[in-house]
């Protein structure tokens, strides 16, 4: 079974957030899928952590070493469909890419982002919910 994961899940796992164990359990025996943009989104998340003084470069590099060990199938996304979805729901493009990826793979989404989960469900995508 494929499971489409977003950056909130990746960050929670690679930075040892309290939900890490639940997230790993929820994806056990699944093929992880993400839009090709996930690398840039992970990088952007760390730059935001730097700006808020919530991560050092050494911490980010250690977390990225873990990230690179996670087997994630990178999937292309139909940009026109994703931009249309972003427009309809007033969401960021990165979130639209994720939902578009789930739609194209007919797979559930695993996210810790409540708004993303709501929009995904509105688009007919099954969401795997993990409560902190």
Q: Mean of residue pLDDT?
A: 96
Oligomer: single chain
Which architecture does the CATH hierarchy give at level 2? 3-Layer(aba) Sandwich
Strand content: 5-15%
Number of helices: 7
The order of strands across the largest sheet is 3-2-1-4-5
**How would you name the CATH homologous superfamily?**
5'-nuclease
Q: What would the CATH topology be?
A: Rossmann fold
The overall strand count is 5
Terminal residue distance: 24 Å
Order of helices and strands: EHHEHHEHHEHE
- DSSP helix fraction: 55-70%
The computed structural class is alpha/beta
The largest β sheet comes out as:
5 strands, parallel
Uncertain runs are: none
- CATH class, named Alpha Beta
Tell me the count of domains.
1
Overall shape: it is globular
Which value, in Å, is the CA radius of gyration?
A: 14 Å
Fold blueprint:
Layout: E1 2-5, H1 7-14, H2 20-27, E2 31-35, H3 38-51, H4 57-67, E3 72-75, H5 79-89, H6 93-105, E4 109-110, H7 114-122, E5 127-128
């Amino acid at each position: 079974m494929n499971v489409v994961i977003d950056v909130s899940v990746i960050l929670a796992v690679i930075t040892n957030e309290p939900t890490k164990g639940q997230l790993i359990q929820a994806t056990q025996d699944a093929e992880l899928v993400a839009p090709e943009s996930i690398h840039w989104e992970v990088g952007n998340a760390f730059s935001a952590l730097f700006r808020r003084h919530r991560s050092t470069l050494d911490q980010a590099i250690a977390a990225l070493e873990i990230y690179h060990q996670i087997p994630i199938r990178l999937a292309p996304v139909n940009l026109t469909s994703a931009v249309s979805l972003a427009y309809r729901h007033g969401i960021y493009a990165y979130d639209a890419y994720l939902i578009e990826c789930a739609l194209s793979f007919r797979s559930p989404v695993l996210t810790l982002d409540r708004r993303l989960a709501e929009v995904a469900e509105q688009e007919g995508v099954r969401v795997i919910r993990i409560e902190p």
